[in-house]
Fold:
Amino acid sequence: MCALVNAKDKAPPALLQIARSTQDALFTELSGDFMIFLEGGQRLATNALYEFANAVNLDPEVDLIYGDEDTCSASGKRSNPFHKPAWSPDYLESFNYIGFPACFRSTVASACRDYGCIYDMVLQFTERTTRIQHVGKVLGHGSQQVHDDARLERTSVNNVVALQRRLSRTGRNGMVREHELHRGCYDIKLELSGVPLVSIIIPTAGKTVYVDGHGVDLIVNIIEQITSRSTYKNIEIIVVDNGDLSGRQQQTLTKKGCKKITFSDPVFNISKKLNLGASIASGELFLLMNDDIEILTPDWIERMIEHFEKPHVGVVGAKLLYPDGRTQHVGVVHNSGNPDHVRRLFPSNEAGYYFSTYGVRNYMAVTGAVMMTTSELYRAVGGYSEELAVSYNDADFCLKVRETGRWIVYAPKVELTHMESQSRVASADMGEVAWYHKRWAAHTVSDPYYNERFLTVASPTFEPCVNRRVL
Structure:
């Protein structure tokens, strides 16, 4: 049995002053095993209750089932479909992506009585259970709401307080604020509980490239930027060269106190180079990065480390931009079993698809161009797979980490420039691609964080469409 409950926004002062007796009465009167919250203007799709019941029949232990949603006008025209990812704990701290429609087990919800808004309740609920399922169908329709500044402000205040309470319950200290450009998206900036040593591992070929007509010595440039622009100082820099650095380059590395190790194998293999660098690293955290990077946010290292304050996180990736400011990397998804960057070459200041660019998100993988993980986890999964000398080695590493039960996180507040050419034609070693597919085909046939049926796949831009499935 499922009960439907009307939900309304609470005024800000009422967030912690809601009459406990009112909420007690609400849960006491409910006799259903599950409950669904409805706000004014929302309605369930005709198949919603069937889909929720079907999910419970398939998994009687499930505690929360949520579906996709869209907007319906007074004339019945549907628009703005939100095709949601599978359970994403870090995305939930950007905004209440679970939203509507969602079906909550009443016994778990009853333990979350001291809540001030639905977002607050959802945060508390998901701290009590991970038995959460997503139904990838539009099961709810919202109304097109008239812009109301007072209501938006009230919702914003409630949501900020809900997230602040979340930090308190989970033992984290920090500040929550709503994004200055994209209302409804929230940023959590933590005070780090410690200052771990970070080993920055940079493989290099010692090249000079030309950007806007100016020559840039890549390894010298990134070392200078790390040491002069970064606000986090407990680092060691490990450079893995090919044995052919110039005298000036060698002098710079020595002056900056870098560790150096030479890759002497005549056959190029980026995975071997990274593993070689890791073999002499002493840090609690490893930061793997290309040499063709420029730093845009001085606290970039802190904004990566803060995600490891959450024990479930295994890998953190950055927001990478081309030199012209357009997006190069804001997450990696799998389409037809192949990893690909989402929303590549879009404006860097756009929100993305339901804050896909500006909100913290979970993905199956992030690029290895800038990637942080723990040294313990890196060694536990065997580092980078050396069978993948060129192709898919970063995605392979992320999938190995996911096998341990850890999550992959995209951190949008870590903004860096990646000088990779926009016009470069992506190429892959087909032997390595075959190896990757043989190893991971069962895991990548359907990406839990990207709807391959109703979102564009070539390339994955998060734009709604209807694709013919290849069976």
Summary: Confidence is low (pLDDT under 50) at residues 8-21. Residues 198-444 form a domain with the Spore Coat Polysaccharide Biosynthesis Protein SpsA; Chain A fold (CATH 3.90.550.10).
